[in-house]
Amino acid sequence: MSSEEGVPVDLYIYDLTNGLASVLSPAILGRQVEGVWHTSVVVFEREYFYGGAGVTSCAPGGTQLGAPHQVLRLGTTFVPFPVFNEYIQGLATTTYTAGAYRLLEHNCNHFSDEVSQFACGARVPEHIRKQPERDLPAPLRAALGSALAALVPDGDQVYANGVRHSRRDSPDYLTLNNQIEEARVASQELEARRSTLAEKLARKERRKEKKRKKQRQLNGGDGFEADGDKAELFTTPRAPGARALLV
């Protein structure tokens, strides 16, 4: 889907405790907490998120967290991919570097909120954005730090300007790869047509050569070579008994 038609923007919501928060929170906090939320933004067939390793991008659902707990449609973006990609690169090298990550003040949900506002004007739900201050006591924060540090996407990765992403899955790469494949097929078809035409011309030339050879034989091998398609006989007025001349 092109940016002219609009590209969907989704929020992937993960529970870092995989259900344990719902079970243990009454004993720890005195009230139930459904989950400890990590979010990412999925747009242009990529999943973008922020953690202890900095800004990361992978195929949707390609992190070690597996399938998201919930997928929330935030809206539609009309921002061209090159502009969006440049924006992400800027965040990765300034505001959202690996060293700038803080579990409470500067985390994945802050990143998702900023990216979603840029892409489509939507925000991450408030209960997710404000959860650290409300639901995470100090002991739980330390445990979550290890979980976030281990959050690395699966698959082949390259690093560029501080952003970790898979080059082979980017929209620009897929488009370019398709164009290269189409050009390769077109080149093969053109080469086949050229070969066929060359063979036809060669056969035609062989037939003409056979006709010329036959014509030379008919003329007694005297060196006369007629055109393969047509030979013309010119005569000049002559006296009785004189021979005709071929010219």
TrEMBL record:
Molecular function per GO: peptidase activity
Coiled coil: none
Record field: compositional bias (Basic residues): 203-216
InterPro entries linked to this entry: PPPDE_dom, PPPDE_sf
Domain annotation PPPDE: ranges: 7-149
Keywords assigned by UniProt, alphabetized: Hydrolase, Protease
PANTHER family documented for this protein: DESUMOYLATING ISOPEPTIDASE (PTHR12378), DESUMOYLATING ISOPEPTIDASE 1 (PTHR12378:SF7)
Family statement drawn from the similarity comment of this UniProt entry: Belongs to the DeSI family.
Protein name: PPPDE domain-containing protein
